[in-house]
Amino acid sequence: MFRSHHAQPPELPAVRTAPTRPLIVFERVFKTYGNGNPALEDVSFQVRPKDFVFVVGASGAGKSTMVRLLIREEVASRGHVLVDGQDLRRLRRRQLPRLRRKMGIVFQDYKLLPTLTVEQNVAFAIQVTNPGRRHLKEKVAEALYIVGLEDKLLSQPGQLSGGEQQRVAIARALVHRPRIFLADEPTGNLDPDTSWGIVQLLLQINHRGTTVVVATHNREIVDLCRQRVIAMEQGRIVRDEVEGQYMDGAAQAL
Question: Whole-model pTM above 0.70?
Answer without folding.
Answer: yes
